[in-house]
């Protein structure tokens, strides 16, 4: 297995009051579709979500990481937490010469703070921290040993 870890923290202003901003960001299934490299794969009856992170590296190797999450909104604390869960169907890791699919864990903490812009309009400061840890299967060797001669025999076998 190849273990990776990524983390990003960002802060930005959202042009709406606090309540509107929290309501907007609480609709996580809709927001996932707006994020680069992320897509919603499915969801369970209890509200848990399966999210796919996909990327193409070196213009040819496709990486797909499936993450199962639950959304916990805490309006009173002005916070939204997206936490990993393990109760959706298993994800079987797979690696080929051109792609890998694996399970990963993603956690996102979002905090909201009410404010005003320079013109006195309501804005909300949004601070978030994203952590992702995929466990990727190693790709097979490019030309495995074979009695009958290399890659052609391996691919046809």
Describe this structure in words.
The chain has 157 residues and is mainly beta. The protein has a single domain, classed as Alpha-D-Glucose-1,6-Bisphosphate, Chain A, domain 4, CATH 3.30.530. It contains 3 helices and 9 strands, in the order E-E-H-H-E-E-E-E-E-E-E-H. Strands 1, 2, 3, 4, 5, 6, 7, 8 and 9 form a 9-stranded mixed β-sheet that branches. A hairpin with a 4-residue loop joins strand 5 (61-74) and strand 6 (79-84). The radius of gyration is 20 Å and the shape is elongated. The two termini are 25 Å apart.
Features:
157 residues; mainly beta; Alpha-D-Glucose-1,6-Bisphosphate, Chain A, domain 4; nine-stranded mixed β-sheet; 13% helix; elongated
